[in-house]
Amino acid sequence: xxxxxxxxxxxxxxxxxxxxxxxxxxxxxxxxxxxxxxxxxxxxxxxxxxxxxxxxxxxxxxxxxxxxxxxxxxxxxxxxxxxxxxxxxxxxxxxxxxxxxxxxxxxxxxxxxxxxxxxxxxxxxxxxxxxxxxxxxxxxxxxxxxxxxxxxxxxxxxxxxxxxxxxxxxxxxxxxxxxxxxxxxxxxxxxxxxxxxxxxxxxxx
Length: 205
Ligand SMILES: Cc1cc2nc3c(=O)[nH]c(=O)nc-3n(C[C@H](O)[C@H](O)[C@H](O)COP(=O)(O)OP(=O)(O)OC[C@H]3O[C@@H](n4cnc5c(N)ncnc54)[C@H](O)[C@@H]3O)c2cc1C
Fold this sequence. Notes:
binds flavin-adenine dinucleotide; 25% helix; two-stranded antiparallel sheet; FAD/NAD(P)-binding domain
């Protein structure tokens, strides 16, 4: 075990990977986080983040806000700093393959280097399926969103259009219906691909 690069390798430095990193490092494990882009993941795209745990809008004695909405960049920087403070190390490279030999995980990077660890956490996140329509890219974070619970609050009372006809779209539309009466859907017959009870509820409402 002495030739290990880390006790724990974490692939991906989004909020999940960074949280795992601070827990692991705080438990005295030698933690190596491998990230292909930048620490923060999708959180770096968030314009204003309100719903992180602990955000209760606290003020100091002079009335300055010490805890409140943050940009995604600030949130990511805080998580990154916290993980590093507890002792996690970071390596910026893409992981192309994981193998297991005996009890050791071999994590291969895109440059061919192999990093060895006793355990690996894959925290590589997910990516929304894009519509690839004009305006989508330019307005992402400025009216085009991929998460109703994250961003719906910014569009309270406004006209909101939900694209999609499956369970996820149905759930998002139901959530948004509490924020706006002008919530329309892209498909005739609405959620034709939705299987959850949500479809019945929303079509009746
Ligand atoms: C525009 C926008 C606004 C949002 N607003 C909010 C909000 O207000 N509130 C909220 O709670 N959530 C919000 N979200 C959702 C939130 O950002 C995600 O739920 C969260 O980032 C998921 O964290 P994660 O760590 O699981 O994955 P990710 O953030 O996707 O991180 C995964 C990381 O893994 C890395 N990675 C992937 N493959 C490899 C590989 N092979 N090798 C090395 N690294 C790899 C990626 O580069 C990435 O950095 C928003 C998302 C977007 C896009």
